[in-house]
Protein backbone atom coordinates (compact mmCIF):
# COMPACT_ATOMS: atom_id res chain seq x y z
CA UNK A 1 0.00 0.00 0.00
CA UNK A 2 1.28 3.45 -0.85
CA UNK A 3 0.17 5.10 2.40
CA UNK A 4 3.45 3.99 4.00
CA UNK A 5 5.55 6.02 1.58
CA UNK A 6 5.58 9.62 0.41
CA UNK A 7 3.34 10.09 -2.61
CA UNK A 8 3.88 12.38 -5.58
CA UNK A 9 0.14 13.05 -5.33
CA UNK A 10 0.04 15.87 -2.81
CA UNK A 11 -3.17 17.66 -1.94
CA UNK A 12 -2.20 20.40 -4.41
CA UNK A 13 -1.39 17.93 -7.16
CA UNK A 14 -4.69 16.14 -6.64
CA UNK A 15 -6.57 19.45 -6.91
CA UNK A 16 -4.81 20.20 -10.21
CA UNK A 17 -6.43 17.23 -11.93
CA UNK A 18 -9.32 17.65 -14.33
CA UNK A 19 -12.91 17.36 -13.21
CA UNK A 20 -15.20 15.03 -15.17
CA UNK A 21 -16.56 17.98 -17.19
CA UNK A 22 -13.06 19.32 -17.90
CA UNK A 23 -11.89 15.86 -18.93
CA UNK A 24 -14.75 15.49 -21.43
CA UNK A 25 -13.64 18.78 -22.98
CA UNK A 26 -10.01 17.66 -23.02
CA UNK A 27 -10.24 14.23 -24.62
CA UNK A 28 -9.72 13.92 -28.36
CA UNK A 29 -11.00 10.37 -28.94
CA UNK A 30 -14.06 8.35 -28.00
CA UNK A 31 -16.00 11.16 -26.35
CA UNK A 32 -19.26 9.55 -27.47
CA UNK A 33 -18.18 6.28 -25.79
CA UNK A 34 -17.42 8.10 -22.52
CA UNK A 35 -20.81 9.82 -22.71
CA UNK A 36 -22.61 6.56 -23.57
CA UNK A 37 -21.05 4.69 -20.63
CA UNK A 38 -21.86 7.61 -18.34
CA UNK A 39 -25.50 7.71 -19.44
CA UNK A 40 -25.82 3.92 -19.13
CA UNK A 41 -24.34 3.74 -15.62
CA UNK A 42 -27.10 3.88 -13.04
CA UNK A 43 -26.29 3.14 -9.42
CA UNK A 44 -28.92 1.30 -7.44
CA UNK A 45 -30.42 3.03 -4.40
CA UNK A 46 -28.59 0.53 -2.19
CA UNK A 47 -25.23 1.24 -3.87
CA UNK A 48 -25.79 4.99 -3.68
CA UNK A 49 -26.63 4.76 0.02
CA UNK A 50 -23.58 2.55 0.68
CA UNK A 51 -21.18 4.93 -1.09
CA UNK A 52 -22.69 7.89 0.81
CA UNK A 53 -22.27 6.07 4.13
CA UNK A 54 -18.66 5.29 3.32
CA UNK A 55 -17.90 8.88 2.26
CA UNK A 56 -19.46 10.18 5.50
CA UNK A 57 -17.05 8.18 7.66
CA UNK A 58 -14.08 9.96 9.19
CA UNK A 59 -11.73 7.55 7.42
CA UNK A 60 -13.97 7.25 4.35
CA UNK A 61 -13.30 8.20 0.76
CA UNK A 62 -13.52 11.95 0.14
CA UNK A 63 -11.55 12.01 -3.10
CA UNK A 64 -10.80 9.75 -6.02
CA UNK A 65 -8.04 10.16 -8.58
CA UNK A 66 -8.24 8.50 -11.99
CA UNK A 67 -5.43 7.78 -14.43
CA UNK A 68 -6.38 6.95 -17.99
CA UNK A 69 -6.08 7.60 -21.72
CA UNK A 70 -9.02 8.23 -24.04
CA UNK A 71 -8.09 5.48 -26.53
CA UNK A 72 -8.50 2.68 -23.96
CA UNK A 73 -11.80 0.72 -23.80
CA UNK A 74 -11.33 -0.05 -20.09
CA UNK A 75 -10.96 3.72 -19.53
CA UNK A 76 -13.97 4.85 -21.54
CA UNK A 77 -16.02 2.20 -19.71
CA UNK A 78 -14.51 2.71 -16.22
CA UNK A 79 -14.03 6.45 -15.78
CA UNK A 80 -17.74 7.20 -16.38
CA UNK A 81 -18.64 4.57 -13.76
CA UNK A 82 -16.42 6.25 -11.19
CA UNK A 83 -17.77 9.67 -12.21
CA UNK A 84 -21.22 8.36 -11.23
CA UNK A 85 -19.87 6.93 -7.95
CA UNK A 86 -18.21 10.26 -7.10
CA UNK A 87 -21.39 12.20 -7.88
CA UNK A 88 -23.56 9.88 -5.81
CA UNK A 89 -21.24 9.95 -2.80
CA UNK A 90 -19.96 13.53 -2.91
CA UNK A 91 -16.35 12.46 -3.48
CA UNK A 92 -14.11 14.95 -5.26
CA UNK A 93 -13.11 13.37 -8.58
CA UNK A 94 -9.92 14.32 -10.45
CA UNK A 95 -8.64 12.81 -13.69
CA UNK A 96 -5.06 12.73 -14.97
CA UNK A 97 -3.84 11.51 -18.37
CA UNK A 98 -1.52 8.59 -17.66
CA UNK A 99 1.07 9.44 -20.29
CA UNK A 100 1.47 13.00 -18.98
CA UNK A 101 1.88 11.79 -15.40
CA UNK A 102 4.37 8.90 -15.37
CA UNK A 103 5.37 9.63 -11.76
CA UNK A 104 1.80 9.03 -10.58
CA UNK A 105 1.49 5.94 -12.77
CA UNK A 106 4.70 4.52 -11.31
CA UNK A 107 3.10 4.51 -7.84
CA UNK A 108 0.20 2.38 -9.04
CA UNK A 109 1.64 -0.13 -11.49
CA UNK A 110 -0.39 -3.28 -11.96
CA UNK A 111 1.52 -6.12 -10.26
CA UNK A 112 4.35 -3.62 -9.75
CA UNK A 113 5.26 -3.49 -13.45
CA UNK A 114 2.35 -2.89 -15.86
CA UNK A 115 1.01 0.52 -16.94
CA UNK A 116 -2.58 -0.77 -16.79
CA UNK A 117 -5.42 1.75 -16.93
CA UNK A 118 -7.68 3.00 -15.62
CA UNK A 119 -6.39 3.34 -12.09
CA UNK A 120 -8.67 4.73 -9.39
CA UNK A 121 -7.04 5.91 -6.15
CA UNK A 122 -9.23 6.72 -3.15
CA UNK A 123 -8.21 9.23 -0.47
CA UNK A 124 -9.56 10.35 2.91
CA UNK A 125 -10.45 14.00 3.70
CA UNK A 126 -6.89 14.54 4.94
CA UNK A 127 -5.53 12.97 1.74
CA UNK A 128 -4.43 9.62 3.11
CA UNK A 129 -4.45 6.74 0.63
CA UNK A 130 -7.26 4.27 1.32
CA UNK A 131 -7.04 1.90 -1.63
CA UNK A 132 -6.65 1.73 -5.37
CA UNK A 133 -8.36 -0.31 -8.09
CA UNK A 134 -6.79 -1.12 -11.46
CA UNK A 135 -7.99 -1.78 -15.01
CA UNK A 136 -11.16 -3.91 -15.05
CA UNK A 137 -13.23 -6.16 -12.79
CA UNK A 138 -12.20 -9.78 -12.25
CA UNK A 139 -15.32 -10.93 -14.11
CA UNK A 140 -14.15 -9.03 -17.22
CA UNK A 141 -10.68 -10.58 -16.96
CA UNK A 142 -12.28 -14.03 -16.77
CA UNK A 143 -14.66 -13.42 -19.69
CA UNK A 144 -12.33 -11.46 -21.97
CA UNK A 145 -10.69 -14.46 -23.71
CA UNK A 146 -14.09 -15.90 -24.62
CA UNK A 147 -15.34 -12.50 -25.80
CA UNK A 148 -12.26 -12.05 -27.99
CA UNK A 149 -13.23 -15.23 -29.88
CA UNK A 150 -16.02 -13.19 -31.47
CA UNK A 151 -13.35 -11.25 -33.37
CA UNK A 152 -10.95 -14.11 -34.12
CA UNK A 153 -10.08 -14.47 -37.78
CA UNK A 154 -11.93 -11.33 -38.78
CA UNK A 155 -10.43 -8.36 -40.57
CA UNK A 156 -10.42 -5.00 -38.83
CA UNK A 157 -13.29 -3.89 -41.06
CA UNK A 158 -15.33 -6.99 -40.16
CA UNK A 159 -14.49 -6.77 -36.44
CA UNK A 160 -15.26 -3.06 -35.93
CA UNK A 161 -19.09 -3.29 -36.08
CA UNK A 162 -19.03 -6.43 -33.92
CA UNK A 163 -16.86 -4.66 -31.34
CA UNK A 164 -19.13 -1.60 -31.35
CA UNK A 165 -22.14 -3.87 -30.83
CA UNK A 166 -20.33 -5.68 -28.00
CA UNK A 167 -19.66 -2.34 -26.27
CA UNK A 168 -23.41 -1.64 -26.30
CA UNK A 169 -24.42 -5.12 -25.17
CA UNK A 170 -25.23 -6.92 -21.93
CA UNK A 171 -21.71 -8.23 -21.18
CA UNK A 172 -20.24 -4.71 -21.34
CA UNK A 173 -23.08 -3.43 -19.11
CA UNK A 174 -22.40 -6.23 -16.66
CA UNK A 175 -18.72 -5.21 -16.51
CA UNK A 176 -19.82 -1.67 -15.56
CA UNK A 177 -21.99 -3.11 -12.75
CA UNK A 178 -19.10 -5.33 -11.61
CA UNK A 179 -16.85 -2.27 -11.45
CA UNK A 180 -19.33 -0.65 -9.05
CA UNK A 181 -19.59 -3.85 -6.99
CA UNK A 182 -15.82 -4.37 -6.75
CA UNK A 183 -15.08 -0.75 -5.83
CA UNK A 184 -17.81 -0.76 -3.19
CA UNK A 185 -16.49 -4.03 -1.75
CA UNK A 186 -12.90 -2.71 -1.74
CA UNK A 187 -13.88 0.49 0.05
CA UNK A 188 -16.06 -1.34 2.57
CA UNK A 189 -13.12 -3.62 3.39
CA UNK A 190 -10.55 -0.82 3.65
CA UNK A 191 -12.79 1.55 5.62
CA UNK A 192 -14.11 -1.05 8.08
Keywords, separated by commas or semicolons:
alpha+beta
Describe this structure in words.
By secondary structure, the protein is an alpha+beta fold. It has helices at 11-15, 20-26, 31-40, 45-56, 73-89, 102-107, 138-148, 156-166, 170-190, and strands at 63-68, 92-97, 119-123, 129-134. The chain has a four-stranded mixed sheet with strand order 2-1-3-4, covered by helices on one side. Helix 5 crosses helix 9 (170-190). The model has no long low-confidence stretch (mean pLDDT 94).
Number of helices: 9
Mean pLDDT: 94
List the uncertain runs. Answer: none
- Overall structural class, as computed from helix and strand content, comes to alpha+beta
**What letter string, H or E per element, gives the SSE order?**
HHHHEHEHEEHHH
Indicate the overall shape.
Answer: globular
| Largest sheet entry | 4 strands, mixed
Oligomeric organization of the protein chains: single chain
Helical content (DSSP H or I, runs of 4+): 40-55%
The first-to-last residue Cα distance is 16 Å
Strand order of the largest sheet: 2-1-3-4
> Can you count the beta strands?
4
What is the rounded Rg?
A: 17 Å
Strand content: 5-15%
Set out the fold topology.
Elements: H1 11-15, H2 20-26, H3 31-40, H4 45-56, E1 63-68, H5 73-89, E2 92-97, H6 102-107, E3 119-123, E4 129-134, H7 138-148, H8 156-166, H9 170-190
Parallel strand pairs: 1-2
Antiparallel strand pairs: 1-3, 3-4
What can be said about this structure in brief?
With 192 residues, the chain is α+β, with helices and mostly antiparallel strands. The chain is 52% helix and 12% strand. α4 packs parallel to α9.
